[in-house]
Amino acid sequence: AAKAAGKNQVAVFDYTLRAARLHHAEIAAGLRQALAAEELTLAYQPVVNLTTGAVYAVEALLRWTPSGGRRVPPDVFIPVAEDTGLIVEIGRWALEQACAQAKQWHRRYGIAVTVNVSGRQLRERSFRDTVLEILTRHALPRNALTLEVTESMLLATSPAETQRIVAVLADLRAHGVRIALDDFGTGYSSLAYLRTLPVDILKIDRSFTTPLTGADHRQARAFTKAIVELAAGLDLATVVEGVESREQAGILQQMGCPLAQGYLFSPPISPAEVDDLLQVSPWQHAV
Ligand code: C2E
Ligand code: MG
Ligand code: MG
Ligand code: MG
């Protein structure tokens, strides 16, 4: 519920409703020009193998710095991009850019790129063809791309539409593209439902990571361990998000969690910094 509230414009800004609406309009106007003005970039955050430290993938994360302004965080502008429909164009750009930038990383180090996809994009009739066309044009193997979706975007529509979206994801997966379920544990889907989804990777939300070393750590660890084991039983890989301390990493490794992401390993960084990271210790990177 806290996470849901965090995505709500009014709650984020704690403004009056009217101010929030003005702000929304301002962001929408700025976003409309952001692509053409080349104000959008992608940062990449490594996903690492907890046992070997090897970089397994990089997650592409949108960054927006309006010219002459301050950076606007994705949690603020993505919802506006979704409301206005601009996310379709921005999302296509992100996919295109990520595939172009990740090509070398994949060729040299076997690293996959993961791209976040919004519900609005998924519902576009052309989504499947767009993804396959971009991969073909960049000559990127399909298994070098992972699409991140959330449970909520699968549930936030009619059952028929959900079925259609699940079929699109299953189709892409049959073509080799991997699907990750992002922010797992914050939605409402039952474990039985999870079994029916075309998913390869479970990304356990950051809200599970912080309590691993908190006051109620016994409960928190039992919970995370159960998810990790369930995922393994379903042949899913798990990535734990938001790992910030060595202690958390150690606990997760002991649980048998294979992959992690977080400030402990690296914040989201520029493509040039990814190059450096991969070059400095190539021995770390399993292909
Ligand atoms: P997400 O996909 O769950 O991405 C993880 C977020 O957690 C990122 O925030 C990342 O910077 C942050 N993070 C990573 N490690 C740590 C850590 O150790 N501690 C803490 N406190 N945070 C950490 P960011 O970049 O602000 O992105 C926020 C959300 O915006 C993303 O959550 C995703 O839902 C959305 N987003 C970002 N880029 C895109 C995009 O290209 N398309 C779509 N549709 N959504 C995007
Ligand atoms: Mg993500
Ligand atoms: Mg996430
Ligand atoms: Mg998220």
**Number of alpha- plus pi-helical segments:** 13
Mean pLDDT: 89
N-to-C series of helices and strands:
HHHEEHHEHHEHHEHEHEHEH
| Most strands sheet | 8 strands, mixed, barrel
- Beta-strand content bin: 15-25%
Distinct bound molecules: ligand C2E, magnesium ion
Placed side by side, the strands forming the largest sheet appear as 1-2-3-4-5-6-7-8
Structural class: alpha/beta
Question: Low-confidence segments, ≥5 residues, pLDDT <50?
Answer: 1-6
Helix content: 40-55%
User: How many distinct beta strands?
Assistant: 8
Describe this structure in words.
Helices cover 49% and strands 17% of the residues. The protein is of the alpha/beta class and 287 residues long. It has an eight-stranded mixed beta barrel, surrounded by four helices. A hairpin with a 5-residue loop joins strand 1 and strand 2. The longest helix is centred in the middle third of the chain and has 23 residues, at 87-109. Mean pLDDT is 89; it is low at 1-6. One magnesium ion binds next to strand 5.
What descriptors fit this protein?
287 residues; alpha/beta; 13 helices; 49% helix; disordered N terminus; binds ligand C2E; Diguanylate cyclase/phosphodiesterase
